[in-house]
Amino acid sequence: MVRFIEDLPPMDLMRSEMMTFVQLIIPAESAHRAITYLGQLGFLQFRDLNAEKSPFQRTFVNQVKRCAEMSRKLRFFKDQINKAGLMSSHPVLQSDIYLEDLEIQLAEHEHELIEMNSNSEKLRQSYNELLEFKIVLQKACGFLVSNHGKAISEERELEENVFSNENYVETPFLFEQEVRPAPSNQSGLRFISGIICKSKVLRFERMLFRATRGNMLFNQAPADEQIVDPISAEMVEKTVFVVFFSGEQARTKILKICDAFGANCYPVPEDISKQRQITSEVSSRLTDLEATLDAGIRHRNKALAFVEAHFSEWMDMVRREKAVYDTLNMLNFDVTKKCLVGEGWCPIFAKTQIQEALQRATFDSNSQIGIIFHSMDALESPPTYFRTNSFTSPYQEIVDAYGVARYQEANPAVYTTIIFPFLFAVMFGDWGHGICLLLGALILIARQSKLSTQRLGSFMEMLFGGRYVLLLMSLFSIYCGLIYNEFFSVPFHIFGASAYKCRDNSCRDAHTTGLVKYREPYPFGVDPSWRGSRSELAFLNSLKMKMSILFGVVHMNLGIILSYFNACFFSNSLDIRYQFVPQMIFLNCLFGYLSLLIIVKWCTGSQADLYHVMIYMFLSPFDNLGENQLFWGQRPLQVVLLLWALIAVPWMLFPKPFILKKLHNERFQGRTYGMLNSSEVDLELEPDSARQHREEFNFSEVFVHQMIHSIEFVLGSVSNTASYLRLWALSLAHSELSTVFYEKVLLLAWGYDNLVIRLVGLTVFAFATAFILLMMETLSAFLHALRLHWVEFQNKFYHGDGYKFRPFSFASLTEDEN
């Protein structure tokens, strides 16, 4: 058996790739080119030999800073391109350019853009001021003419009613100083005109009123044009205002309030001829500024278009250079300061490619000394690396989400590829819903070339990455739906006529006293006549519950069998004799026996109560079974199985810790001195690690660990078997929900002879099917299938305490925004 297993061809996914620990000694003149070629290859994971140093103490820190600065400039260019709204053009391939030349080129472009932005802001600010001045001139003229007439008409009333007080500076009425003689310039009606943001007008007016104690007249009018904010480049609505007041102190307060609210004040002459002259001059200057601004924008867009055409190439080059120098900082200089020493992990199959890349780097850099590349021993466990494709990658991600596989241990993803979508379909089985999922999966697969190049949201990215998982889930859902004979909860006579018929022609008692079987059983799946019958729920519950137990026992047995293959691979005979064998005995003597009883009952049509059989197998193993006996010799078989199950518990618990203690004592007997830390020391490798350190054997710790493991398996065998009943529960819930929506929504609405009610019922049924059955139920079944794999299946054999192989690769930098 062992020889047969060894002769089987290796599988890429069955166990992780074999890794080797390597050392590189690279001459300084070819180091950059060698690391670049290794990054293009992507098969070497470097180890940081300068972990104790801070980033600022490393050798190539200045080069990393330069790359970071260039990356900042490129991000600045990207922001400017987005603000300008330039469409992305086809990238222009530039001839080979060195990093130093690119650094100079980027600095020139940044300086040019900053200068153009500064000039553009100044011009835009001047343009906005002139535009505001023009708007103020147009609006304020009307205010001045109308208020001048109002002032003359009210002059007599003010002369008669205003109380004159020479010592009081601020008068209680606006036009008092206008109509009476004043000894200084502070007398007379004055005004301030300007423009302010529309959102601030109400607060601005209230503040003016309070500051002047009501001694002001505030006129406003909305501006006809929106003005561009030079900082945010957004259009802002503004309002023109004219404030009439009296007194120098009032003028000072109003100007301070204008400054606080960001209002721009502009002088408006009272003479109409001067107003027209100034308006003409402002319009002429606005025309010139518009032409200048347009020319500046065209020149700026031309410079940005050149940058945008080379942006992808430049960003890719900067990312690669920064990654190369970051990797070089992980290497050590030797004592002569002429060579760099690096260490890392690589797959054994890639050693030849790595050597070829290093030879090419030596040749291209014209180095007189070749690069030394050799394998060496390592104390730490190697990383885990699986070669996956677009189909197997999502299943490997499902397993890695629980824990990365230990180096070279059996990979559950091989079995998850089929078992995971099948267990999902057992809970989701409906071939109508399965067809809906299938259409969604086929759309994602058909558009994968387009979607793979787009930036998707988190949900769509997850859905697109798992498109092949969705495909298999939908296919298995259609298969299980055909077995359950459910199409949106409606049964169909797909595979022939039913095996049952009514007792009479009227068929009045079909759903009360039952049907009569008159021909061979329905050839595939559940007979459609069960739908709506009196015993439908009892029959389907019994079928799905027993089926769930069978699937669970087979699934858990597969997990224990995989632990045997792990033990064989690592040459650990203790795990085979004292873990695999008692676990198989315990699980199958109890729940394997229950599965046998289920199959026998199905085949014989017996009415035996399996609950009674299993309970009294423990309580009264020697009592007569009576009508619950399914086959001859069942009672003595139960006694034997029960004894074997009881023996398996101490078999798991006691032998292994004592044998490990004995082996430890024999291994280190007489070795009272410390062991040399050398690769020549004969260290026996334990199966669970690449190389064991010399540690003190703690028997109590080993015994407690084994006891916990044994108790967990014994109790877990019961709880895990019960956990598989979720297959029955979710399948029943999905079927009943689908039935409720079909009968209580669609059929109920269809019973009315009203088109509107029928359309409403159809709409509600469609939304309930899409959002509840196809989204929520899909997510629920997915999570429960995930739980069955992570807990019930993988805890039988999977350690999941490894770490991923993360090679230095330029391909992994493409999605990094740096």
Task: Characterize this entry briefly.
It holds the Pfam family V_ATPase_I. Essential component of the vacuolar proton pump (V-ATPase), a multimeric enzyme that catalyzes the translocation of protons across the membranes. Required for assembly and activity of the V-ATPase. By secondary structure, the protein is α+β, with helices and mostly antiparallel strands.
Total number of strands: 13
Pairing-aware structural class of the strands and helices?
A: alpha+beta
Number of helices: 24
Strand-residue fraction? Answer: 5-15%
Assembly state: single chain
Rg to the nearest angstrom?
Answer: 42 Å
Average pLDDT metric: 84
Percentage of residues in helical conformation = 55-70%
Q: State the low-pLDDT regions, or none.
A: 149-187, 672-694
Q: What is the terminal separation in angstroms? A: 53 Å
**What coarse outline follows from CA principal-axis ratios?**
flat
Task: Walk me through what this model shows.
There is one protein chain. This protein is an alpha+beta fold and 818 residues long. Among the domains are: 14-49 and 337-385, Alpha-Beta Plaits; 122-146 and 188-286, 2-Layer Sandwich (Alpha-Beta Plaits); 543-670 and 699-723, no CATH class. The chain contains 24 helices and 13 strands. It has helices at 2-7, 31-41, 61-84, 99-153, 155-161, 176-179, 201-211, 248-260, 272-328, 351-364, 393-402, 413-428, 431-446, 448-451, 458-465, 467-484, 536-569, 573-604, 610-619, 634-653, 655-667, 699-723, 726-750, 755-793, and strands spanning 19-27, 45-46, 190-197, 217-222, 227-228, 235-236, 238-245, 264-265, 332-333, 339-347, 372-375, 500-501, 516-517. Strands 1, 2, 9, 10 and 11 form a five-stranded antiparallel β-sheet that branches. The protein has a four-stranded antiparallel β-sheet with strand order 4-7-3-8, with helices on both faces. α2 runs antiparallel to α10 (351-364) and α23 packs antiparallel against α24 (755-793). It starts with a helix and ends in a 25-residue tail after the last helix. The model is unreliable at 149-187 and 672-694 (pLDDT under 50).
